[in-house]
């Protein structure tokens, strides 16, 4: 609408100015002589208005974020009786947004009022100058009336354009952040690069002198001179205190980030040369502590791992993940629609559906990022049984919180302060009486206290 009305107003203004030249070139030159000054002033005011509009838009975004966070975590808000506090936070942010928008509205109103005063001043000035030209016989009264009619048409067109400018300022600011994301070039491409043929993929992974800092915390080194070799088909577990960099290793292997220094290779191929879409879609299955399910059927949630999979393949993946029995117990079986983010199933059921979703890709490499740490004992046992079945013959990286779940791992690596401090089997590390042994003692003590 703004574009069509703007074109109409601009065409009328240009056409009428041509008519004004035809009636009286001298009077037209007098009238439009002041326009450049006004254009310069208007450009400066327009820049100020755009800045004010950006500030107002940011405040609206902040207030929306506060509301979204409170509603998205409503159970936590209720659990701590923080409803009033959240209302105060939201109200305060809305008040800031209102104040910025009032300033913007006053600014646009002042601009439009000034534009109208100027345009009406042109009409009055034309009338005054035309009266003088009539008195000197340089212009006829009829021509002055024609000139005034055309001048008023120009005035109305320009007034319409000043109103449209307000819409343009608001629309441009609102769309600026959208276009910012559209134009953003990701550092890690979504696709493109080499693919290792499935029949020759052994899944041998090597972290060589890797150093890494997250983009938002470049001054904090998470991994430093990190070295780890994961033989193909073996189970390697990473253990250690929180904040040591265990999950970061998984994120780097998925290539959510690129290393700051060193390299990561799969079967001798640098990770940065491989196709990220192939890597995540076919080579690696990633199971996290809090998997996200979608508000669709169980069948579609599992098939999300491989959209072309048949119903039979989906059910086979569910059986491998110890999920088929409870899925069949649902009223509609695999056609049962899960709630948003999978809220209608328990933690153990959600985890087993997520395992099935990862397995349907038949990945050569599995990453288990504390996949059982948030579950109760019975759910953990069922999920652990499912995992023990599916890791056979696959290269598996296990990030563990409960050390009891990784005793049978081929290699256990103790991570501390971004480095591998100890490495070996459960028996070997226990015999060393080092960090791993200390972690085992602490966890056994915690388990004894919890059982009492």
TrEMBL record:
<keyword id="KW-0067">ATP-binding</keyword>
<keyword id="KW-0630">Potassium</keyword>
<dbReference type="InterPro" id="IPR003439">
    <property type="entry name" value="ABC_transporter-like_ATP-bd"/>
</dbReference>
<dbReference type="GO" id="GO:0015421">
    <property type="term" value="F:ABC-type oligopeptide transporter activity"/>
</dbReference>
<dbReference type="InterPro" id="IPR003593">
    <property type="entry name" value="AAA+_ATPase"/>
</dbReference>
<keyword id="KW-0547">Nucleotide-binding</keyword>
<dbReference type="Pfam" id="PF00664">
    <property type="entry name" value="ABC_membrane"/>
</dbReference>
<feature type="transmembrane region" description="Helical">
    <location>
        <begin position="106"/>
        <end position="134"/>
    </location>
</feature>
<dbReference type="GO" id="GO:0090374">
    <property type="term" value="P:oligopeptide export from mitochondrion"/>
</dbReference>
<protein>
    <recommendedName>
        <fullName>Mitochondrial potassium channel ATP-binding subunit</fullName>
    </recommendedName>
</protein>
<keyword id="KW-0633">Potassium transport</keyword>
<keyword id="KW-0813">Transport</keyword>
<feature type="domain" description="ABC transporter">
    <location>
        <begin position="205"/>
        <end position="442"/>
    </location>
</feature>
<keyword id="KW-0406">Ion transport</keyword>
<comment type="similarity">
    <text>Belongs to the ABC transporter superfamily. ABCB family. Multidrug resistance exporter (TC 3.A.1.201) subfamily.</text>
</comment>
<keyword id="KW-0472">Membrane</keyword>
<dbReference type="GO" id="GO:0005524">
    <property type="term" value="F:ATP binding"/>
</dbReference>
<feature type="transmembrane region" description="Helical">
    <location>
        <begin position="29"/>
        <end position="49"/>
    </location>
</feature>
<dbReference type="InterPro" id="IPR017871">
    <property type="entry name" value="ABC_transporter-like_CS"/>
</dbReference>
<dbReference type="InterPro" id="IPR039421">
    <property type="entry name" value="Type_1_exporter"/>
</dbReference>
<dbReference type="InterPro" id="IPR036640">
    <property type="entry name" value="ABC1_TM_sf"/>
</dbReference>
<dbReference type="GO" id="GO:0006813">
    <property type="term" value="P:potassium ion transport"/>
</dbReference>
<keyword id="KW-1133">Transmembrane helix</keyword>
<feature type="domain" description="ABC transmembrane type-1">
    <location>
        <begin position="1"/>
        <end position="170"/>
    </location>
</feature>
<dbReference type="InterPro" id="IPR027417">
    <property type="entry name" value="P-loop_NTPase"/>
</dbReference>
<keyword id="KW-0812">Transmembrane</keyword>
<keyword id="KW-0496">Mitochondrion</keyword>
<dbReference type="InterPro" id="IPR011527">
    <property type="entry name" value="ABC1_TM_dom"/>
</dbReference>
<keyword id="KW-0999">Mitochondrion inner membrane</keyword>
<dbReference type="Pfam" id="PF00005">
    <property type="entry name" value="ABC_tran"/>
</dbReference>
<keyword id="KW-0809">Transit peptide</keyword>
<dbReference type="GO" id="GO:0005743">
    <property type="term" value="C:mitochondrial inner membrane"/>
</dbReference>
<dbReference type="GO" id="GO:0016887">
    <property type="term" value="F:ATP hydrolysis activity"/>
</dbReference>
């Amino acid at each position: 609408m703004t574009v069509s009305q703007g074109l109409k107003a601009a065409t009328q203004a240009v056409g009428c100015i041509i008519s004004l030249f035809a009636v009286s070139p001298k009077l037209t030159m007098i009238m439009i002589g002041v326009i450049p000054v006004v254009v310069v002033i208007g450009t400066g005011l327009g820049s100020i208005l755009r800045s004010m509009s950006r500030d107002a838009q940011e405040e609206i975004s902040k207030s929306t974020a506060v509301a979204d966070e409170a509603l998205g975590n409503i159970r936590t808000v209720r659990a701590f009786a923080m409803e009033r506090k959240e209302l105060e936070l939201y109200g305060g942010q809305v008040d800031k947004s209102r104040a910025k928008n009032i300033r913007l509205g006053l600014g646009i109103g002042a601009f439009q009022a000034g534009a109208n005063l100027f345009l009406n001043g042109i009409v009055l000035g034309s009338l005054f100058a035309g009266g003088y030209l009539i008195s000197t016989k340089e212009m006829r009264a009829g021509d002055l009336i024609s000139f005034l009619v055309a001048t008023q048409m120009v005035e109305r067109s320009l007034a319409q354009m000043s109103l449209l400018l307000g819409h343009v300022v608001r629309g441009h600011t609102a769309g600026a952040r959208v276009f910012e994301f559209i134009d953003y070039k990701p550092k890690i491409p979504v696709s493109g690069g080499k693919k290792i043929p499935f029949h020759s993929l052994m899944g041998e992974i090597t972290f060589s002198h890797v150093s890494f800092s997250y983009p938002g915390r470049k001054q904090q080194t998470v991994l430093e001179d990190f070295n780890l070799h994961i033989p193909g088909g073996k189970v390697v577990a990473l253990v250690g205190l929180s904040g040591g960099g265990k999950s970061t290793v998984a994120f780097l292997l998925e290539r959510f980030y690129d290393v700051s220094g060193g390299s990561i290779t799969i079967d001798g191929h640098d990770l940065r040369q491989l196709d990220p879409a192939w890597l995540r879609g076919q080579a690696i299955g990633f199971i996290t502590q809090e998997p996200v399910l979608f508000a669709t059927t169980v069948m579609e949630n599992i098939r999300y791992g491989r959209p072309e999979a048949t119903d039979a393949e989906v059910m086979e993946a569910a059986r491998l993940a110890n999920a088929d029995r409870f899925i069949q117990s649902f009223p509609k079986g695999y056609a049962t629609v899960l709630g948003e983010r999978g809220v209608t199933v328990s933690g153990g059921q959600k985890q087993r559906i997520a395992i099935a979703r990862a397995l349907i890709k038949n990945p050569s490499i599995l990453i288990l990022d504390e996949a059982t740490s948030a579950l109760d004992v019975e759910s953990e046992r069922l999920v652990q049984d499912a995992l023990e079945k599916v890791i056979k013959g696959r290269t598996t990286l296990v990030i563990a919180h409960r050390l009891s779940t990784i005793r049978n791992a081929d290699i256990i690596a103790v991570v501390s302060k971004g480095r591998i401090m100890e490495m070996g089997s459960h028996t070997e590390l226990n015999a060393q009486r080092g960090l791993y042994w200390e972690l085992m003692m602490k966890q056994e003590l915690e388990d004894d206290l919890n059982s009492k």
